[in-house]
Backbone:
């Protein structure tokens, strides 16, 4: 029996070494799972953009929803159902994130135009992306990509501050296969907290 027990332990050890059973995946390589998906209207997207940028409603509409030709619009309506959602990202309190990311640093979000046709659903484009701060405020580069219709990849690279507010927190829209990037600005950098680097994925 003792020999059988030793053989079993040796076999388990082999599995761990050969297949990586029980190994820990680095947090910055994991998929962020706790995104909220909320259906929104075109007007709600415009209202949020106006609130964050201060531009007029008409200018926001020209920027976010450039006019399509009549034939393009008609063909789109015949083939698929188009709607809009906002994907709100995990706060940095989430336990899947790497340890040096502190609590209450806010979250990222993506307003997306999505389509449904039969069994298929996917993101047609990111209308725009943004960052919401909490008690800690991020300053730095926010990059996001839409590799395909079902996945968003994003990276935050910069620093965290206390006792300030964001001055720039909105990025431009992108289509499938494109990359967007903007710098999140803050009003004051005197109360420094820590560096921040994180990247994750969101599936839709």
Residues:
């Amino acid at each position: 029996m003792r020999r059988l027990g030793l053989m079993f332990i040796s076999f388990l050890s082999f599995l761990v070494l050969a297949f990586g059973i029980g190994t820990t995946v680095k947090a910055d390589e994991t998929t962020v799972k706790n995104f909220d998906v909320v259906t929104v209207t075109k007007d709600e997207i415009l209202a949020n953009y106006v609130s964050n940028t201060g531009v007029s409603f008409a200018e926001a509409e020209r920027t976010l929803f450039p006019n399509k030709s009549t034939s393009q619009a008609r063909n789109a309506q015949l083939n698929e159902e188009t709607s809009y959602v906002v994907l709100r990202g995990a706060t940095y309190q989430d336990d899947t994130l790497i340890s040096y990311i502190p609590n209450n640093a806010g979250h990222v979000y993506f307003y997306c135009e999505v389509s449904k046709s039969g069994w298929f659903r996917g993101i047609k484009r990111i209308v725009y992306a943004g960052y919401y701060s909490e008690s800690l405020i991020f300053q730095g580069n926010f990059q996001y990509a839409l590799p395909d219709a079902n996945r968003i990849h994003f990276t935050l690279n910069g620093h965290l501050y206390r006792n300030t507010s964001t001055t720039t927190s909105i990025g431009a829209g992108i289509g499938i296969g494109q990359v967007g990037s903007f710098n999140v600005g803050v009003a004051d950098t005197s109360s420094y907290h820590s560096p921040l680097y994180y990247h994750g994925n969101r599936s839709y």
Notes: The mean pLDDT is 73. The chain has four helices and eleven strands. The longest helix spans residues 2-19.
